Amino acid sequence: MPRSRFARDLSAPDNRIVGGGSRDGGLRIVFDPAIDGAAWPGAPGEPRACFGEAWLGPLGLVARLETELGLGAKQATSTERVADLTRNLAGLDGFWSASFARDPLATSARLLADRDTLALWDWRGEAVSPRLADLWRATSDALPGLPDRLWRILEVVGRRYVDIQSIRVADPVESLPPPWIRTFEVLAALGVSLETAPIAEAASAGDLAAARRPGFTPAADGSLTLLRPHGPLAAADEVAAALAALDSLDGVVLVGPDAILDDALGRHGLPRVGADRAPPASSAFVRLVVETAFAPMDPADLHGLLCAEPGPVPRGIARLLASALRALPGRGSPAWREALARGISEVEESRRSSVAERLSALLVPRKGAGHQKSEGRDLLGHGENRTSEIQAGGYRGGARRTGAPDKAGADQSGPRVPGATHLGVRRGAPERGGGSSASLQRTHRWQVAVAVHQAPAGRSLR
To answer: Where does residue 23 rank: exposed (0-12), middle (13-18), buried (19+ CB within 10 A)?
Structure first.
């Protein structure tokens, strides 16, 4: 990679990168690759209201530059790019062919992700291996992604005016992918002030400070404690107990607390942090069960249904089917059919026919599901019937037998709610989130109705 042409003025108090000039009155931008995440509350320490400033990530800055340069247009979404590539790959042979025959959309998404990652590091189709040559042949006509938009910006940015006064970055520009480096070089030459404002390190001493450097040898001064518990529940109790033993919680900062630690803090009489709670595992059952009616089904969803404990697939059969998925993702392959037949043959004769009937209803896609609106009521009943079998529990190879006490000694007899082994939920008993099993079942039926109503033709709801 050629050496960056940035000239850094080390005497400047703000560690500014000096370009070919300066301008006032333009937009002031704070750039951070992390801002394109799920949420961005604003830069810490900045005023709540501002004028002429923007905090942008890669997608935001590219969109802003396209607007400044007259390149703004409606961009294809990731789903549209995948669908377009799926059409282009029809009839095209390559290393992806076997996977494409089973799941065209997932295969196209993976090819696009590989192509975009390589292109962001300046790969332009160089055939350094037969596989890369095939990848470029398959994706060269794909709808433009982030690398293509950056290349287009680089073609015109040096010839047009950009109304940007400054861009502030937290990490060195040289650590970014090559197209970003060249973009910032051109902007600096146009007079845009580029500032590096690294995040200041927190003051620390002793082992806590020394642990940041290579070759760390602890001196056991008490500033850093390594906890090796048997699991997250034990870790949360240890941390909560240690905090409860302190005379004061002033100056205590919890980094990345979760719901498990939140519960432990409450048990030890400490204030909770209000951590987000993930939905119960049972909330995914209805979606996965409805997904099985469609083809193709995402292999990850299918694997999740097979591995659910308790679940509708006996453990012995689930292990064989999961191994078949690793060989070739998707249902209907010779490995899948052989694994299913072998697993059913190993079930004791008195249960073999009922297990085969249940697995056929669960794992065989319904022909034409999702193509006609008239099938909505039938598919709703299909999802509820499949889910009721999971809720019934008591069959061997999946859930625990009814009537057996759990580890805490509570009687688990009676119909089971999906995931009750993990969540400690029983019919009539409150759920950890505060609801009852009856309300959980109502939520399941609502999810089935939404899945049937919103599923596009020929495709399952993601």
So the answer is: middle
